[in-house]
């Protein structure tokens, strides 16, 4: 299976053969050169060529029928008709093609935005790059929660465990070690010194050198794993597809009825057949799914500009229904710019000056500068903070960029402020995990080994038996415990994040017999550190906007209750003194949790399992839940939520994969912005559905009622197709990009199962359709009378009037469809420049159809006189005139009310 058995060679040999440096990695230049051999991705199914797609437009059954009808009318000598219909069909196909092409392109952009990243060492620096840019020889850093980005030969491992079910079907994680050399012929599942593309790091960390990329990886060879998944239709798209099918049946029924009735009444069969087919083509909203996709996709791009990267299109719809946002604290509501401000050992308290990750700052004991490294316990605490730490600070960069966990970054900065430096080589490690709330490393000491542990104070206290003193150690008494717990409570109330530190020394023999649990027992407590993490400046505003929009923000954090409550109050999530801790959740039944979850706004000290239970409880209570997550263990809760949200900066790859949306900036305000966009996009979908269906119902009813009332055909087949062309395409698309209406975030969330036609939309569409059809018939009748009075024998004038009226009525209607709450006089006419352009071009095209000498014979039109225009435009705009009067009147009323109020 493998070209080279990399697992059979010691890793320095692998590094040598791949001409790389295990410390510095490849140089960017070399990596670029190697990239010429191919990107690190599994080849995708070839996309259909644009030409194929264009031809695909003609395979639609209705279009085929129309084409057949065109051929028939051509054969019967109606050449002008045949050519025109053909031209219209082609233009329609072009429009359809453009819509579909745009939809596909936008979906591709979305896919790109959420493509995986990998951490590599290049040019001697740790950096994040797109996983597809990896090349053989790259040194990749693996952390818990990463998806392995290529096939690797491991060169460094710390408690590394990888779940390889994607390849082996075995879901129990496998231990990995870099230092073994394995026989050539062993099964994949036993290759302990290798990591394979697509598998997941469930614990620990490590480094590996890339030995194969893209299709050369094991995953690439078993390419069936990665069959390109077509994006699933969103619930709304599926519903619209269904609706489309129902409408097709209905329209065809009406068209057959209209045709037969006409033939029975003595109209020429061919013209009735053509009218029936044209009507069906015009009335069936075949473009609806494509427009929905384009609108959703464009919305997604708008969201991306506001830092919300949507991974699943369906999230856009669900966002508008969100009733609860469960948010992490650290980094989402706070800035994740931590600074250690104070420390305390048994005998020494100190404050630390300086802000952010800047290295300028000093340790102060009251007004006195403290030589931190001269104090035994303080110095050990600083060493613990430094060694039990993976963060790195790029000191060459003036911005002081931090790589790694911000909590650890703050601790590193503290140690550097104290002037401590040293090798950070680790002999053994028990990685941090939010369940244990601890992290442990073993480093080589002067006489043997030293274990450093840091983590939550309450957890650590249970594992310590002694306390470090200025000189030596002492037994950890209840008094000591009480003092530190009191200190933590005090600091937490001031929104400090508190971390505790401990250590112990071990001989080599002791280390050898200690398992992970033993390592973290019988420790010597060093003291605590308190760090600040200021709330994000926007958080308070966003929380209050959510509350106004009927969305409840809830904080779910691993931090202490007092810290959580202090932060929650400062951003306005709660005003009550109520917080529920993870341990209390354990005591609740699912039913009790449902009751509690609806009233409590702050959950603290929770583990990922608690998060999962909370999401389930809230969903059970009927809420639509958005839930944020970052760590690998958060993935189940994020997946369970209606809207799973992952952190772009601090989130693990696995959580990102489980999510519907990724916050590029980890900011709570971005969720609020995404909800805002989500609501606006859904509004827009309702707008163009209202418009498209209103128009189509109008067209079908016009023909249907005329047939029932025994009137002649009010529109010729070509005219029907033309109306469809000039009114359906551009104006509907333009409605899809309407800017959000005012007050989008002032109304309650939309119920999840609400039909698209709820809140009067269905009736509104039918009503408007009926209105358009009846008024068209009135205009048509007036046209017949006018024609008769003028001594004309044919129906050219009446049809021109009905034809033009139908276009005008729809162009006025599109302006009304811009908002369901406000009239155009309230929101203004010029807010959507695409719509104005679309209306103007449609009106111009209609003008051409009526006045161009070349087109008059094609459309069988005659010029209209001013009073006929007046009548057409007056009736078409009558609803709007009525709205104008109403607006002016209600404004006056409002003024009067205000006046009355002032007088009172
Ligand atoms: P949030 O859930 O809002 O992100 P959090 O970061 O406090 O908040 P976790 O990451 O689950 O939540 O951490 C839980 C606890 O574990 C923290 O309160 C802290 O006491 C401890 N802790 C956090 N990071 C580390 C770390 N790198 N090493 C050791 N202990 C840590």
UniProtKB/TrEMBL annotation:
Residues 5-78 form the Cation-transporting P-type ATPase N-terminal domain. SUPFAM superfamilies: Calcium ATPase, transduction domain A, Calcium ATPase, transmembrane domain M, HAD-like, Metal cation-transporting ATPase, ATP-binding domain N. Its EC number is 7.2.2.10. GO terms for molecular function: ATP binding; ATP hydrolysis activity; metal ion binding; P-type calcium transporter activity. It is an enzyme of class 7 (translocase). The chain crosses the membrane at residues 54-76, 82-98, 243-264, 270-298, 688-709, 715-735, 756-784, 796-815, 827-847, 867-885. It comes from the Bacteria. It is a multi-pass membrane protein. Signal peptide: none annotated. One of its GO terms (biological process) is export from cell. It catalyses: Ca(2+)(in) + ATP + H2O = Ca(2+)(out) + ADP + phosphate + H(+). One of its GO terms (cellular component) is plasma membrane. It is found in: Cell membrane. Pfam families: Cation_ATPase (PF13246), Cation_ATPase_C (PF00689), Cation_ATPase_N (PF00690), E1-E2_ATPase (PF00122). Keywords: ATP-binding, Calcium, Calcium transport, Cell membrane, Ion transport, Magnesium, Membrane, Metal-binding, Nucleotide-binding, Translocase, Transmembrane, Transmembrane helix, Transport. Belongs to the cation transport ATPase (P-type) (TC 3.A.3) family. Type IIA subfamily. This is P-type Ca(2+) transporter.
């Amino acid at each position: 299976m493998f070209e080279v058995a990399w697992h059979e060679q010691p890793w320095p040999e692998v590094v040598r053969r791949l001409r790389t440096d295990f410390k510095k990695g490849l140089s960017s230049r070399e990596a670029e050169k190697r990239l010429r051999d191919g990107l690190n991705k599994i080849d995708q199914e070839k996309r259909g060529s644009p030409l194929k797609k264009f031809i695909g437009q003609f395979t639609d059954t209705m279009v085929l029928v129309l084409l057949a009808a065109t051929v028939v009318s051509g054969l019967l000598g109606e050449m002008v008709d045949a050519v025109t219909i053909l031209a219209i069909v082609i233009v329609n196909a072009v429009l359809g093609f453009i819509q579909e092409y745009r939809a596909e392109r936008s979906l591709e952009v979305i896919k790109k935005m959420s493509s995986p990243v990998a951490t590599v060492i290049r040019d001697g620096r740790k950096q994040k790059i797109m996983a597809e840019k990896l090349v053989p020889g790259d040194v990749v850093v693996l952390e818990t929660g990463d998806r392995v980005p290529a096939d690797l030969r491991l060169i460094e491992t710390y408690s590394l465990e990888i779940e390889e079910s994607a390849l082996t079907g075995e879901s129990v994680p496998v231990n990995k070690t870099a230092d073994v050399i394995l026989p050539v012929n062993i099964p994949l599942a036993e290759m302990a010194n290798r990591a394979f593309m697509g598998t997941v790091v469930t614990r620990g960390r490590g480094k590996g050198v890339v030995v194969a990329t893209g299709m050369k990886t094991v995953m690439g060879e078993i390419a069936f794993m990665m069959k390109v998944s077509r994006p699933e239709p969103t619930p709304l798209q599926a519903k619209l597809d269904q609706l489309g099918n129902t409408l097709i049946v209905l329209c065809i029924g009406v068209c057959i009825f209209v045709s037969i009735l006409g033939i029975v009444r003595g109209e020429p069969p061919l013209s009735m057949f053509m009218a029936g087919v044209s009507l069906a083509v015009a009335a069936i909203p075949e473009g609806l799914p494509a427009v929905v996709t384009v609108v959703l996709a464009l919305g997604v791009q708008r969201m991306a500009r506001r830092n919300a990267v949507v991974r699943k299109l369906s999230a856009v719809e669900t966002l508008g229904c969100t009733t609860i946002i469960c948010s992490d604290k650290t980094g989402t509501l706070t800035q994740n710019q931590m600074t250690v401000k104070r420390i305390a050992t048994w005998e020494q308290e100190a404050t630390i000056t300086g802000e952010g990750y800047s290295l300028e700052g000093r340790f102060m004991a009251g007004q006195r500068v403290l030589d931190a490294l001269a104090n035994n316990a303080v110095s050990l605490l600083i060493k613990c903070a430094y060694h039990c730490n993976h963060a790195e600070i790029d000191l060459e960069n003036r911005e002081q960029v931090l790589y790694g966990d911000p909590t650890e970054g703050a601790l590193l900065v503290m140690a550097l402020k104290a002037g401590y430096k040293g090798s950070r080589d680790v002999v053994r490690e028990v990685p941090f995990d939010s369940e244990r709330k601890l992290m442990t490393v073993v480093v080589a000491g002067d006489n043997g080994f030293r274990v450093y542990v840091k983590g939550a104070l309450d957890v650590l206290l249970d594992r310590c038996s002694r306390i470090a003193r200025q000189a030596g150690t002492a037994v950890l008494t209840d008094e000591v415990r009480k003092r530190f717990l009191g200190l933590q409570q005090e600091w937490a109330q001031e929104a400090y994040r508190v971390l505790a530190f401990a250590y112990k020394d071990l001989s080599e023999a002791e280390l050898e017999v200690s398992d992970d649990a033993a390592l973290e027992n019988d420790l010597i407590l060093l003291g605590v550190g308190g760090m600040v993490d200021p709330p994000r400046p926007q958080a308070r505003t966003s929380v209050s906007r959510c509350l106004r929009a009927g969305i409840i923000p809830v904080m779910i954090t691993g931090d202490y209750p007092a810290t959580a409550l202090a932060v929650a109050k400062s951003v306005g999530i709660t005003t009550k003194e109520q917080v529920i801790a993870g341990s209390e959740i354990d005591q609740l039944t699912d039913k009790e949790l449902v009751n509690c979850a609806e009233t409590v706004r702050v959950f603290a000290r929770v583990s990922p399992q608690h998060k999962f239970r909370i999401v389930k409880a809230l969903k059970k209570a009927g809420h639509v839940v958005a839930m944020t997550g970052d760590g690998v263990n958060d993935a189940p809760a994020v997946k369970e939520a209606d809207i799973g949200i992952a952190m772009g900066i601090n989130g693990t790859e696995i959580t990102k994969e489980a999510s519907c949306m990724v916050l590029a900036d980890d900011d709570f305000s971005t969720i609020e912005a995404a909800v805002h966009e989500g609501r606006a996009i859904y509004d827009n979908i309702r707008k163009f559905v209202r418009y498209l269906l209103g128009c189509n119902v109008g067209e079908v009813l016009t023909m249907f009622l005329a047939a029932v009332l025994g009137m002649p055909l009010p529109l010729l087949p070509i005219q029907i197709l033309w109306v469809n062309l000039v009114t359906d395409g551009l104006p509907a698309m333009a409605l899809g990009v309407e800017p959000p209406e005012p007050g989008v975030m002032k109304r309650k969330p939309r119920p999840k199962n609400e039909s698209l036609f709820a809140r009067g939309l269905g009736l509104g569409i039918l009503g408007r359709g009926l209105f358009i059809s009846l008024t068209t018939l009135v205009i048509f009748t007036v046209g017949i009378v006018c024609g008769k009075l003028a001594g004309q024998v044919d129906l050219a004038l009446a049809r021109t009037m009905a034809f033009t009226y139908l276009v005008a009525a729809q162009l006025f209607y599109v302006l009304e469809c811009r908002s369901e709450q406000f009239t155009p006089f309230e929101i203004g006419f010029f807010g959507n420049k695409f719509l104005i352009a679309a209306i103007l071009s449609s009106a111009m095209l209609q003008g051409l159809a009526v006045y161009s000498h070349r087109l008059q014979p094609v459309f069988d039109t005659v010029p209209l006189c001013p009073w006929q225009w007046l009548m057409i435009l007056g009736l078409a705009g009558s609803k709007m005139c009525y709205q104008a009067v109403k607006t002016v009147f209600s404004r006056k009323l409002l003024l009067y009310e205000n006046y009355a109020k002032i007088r009172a």
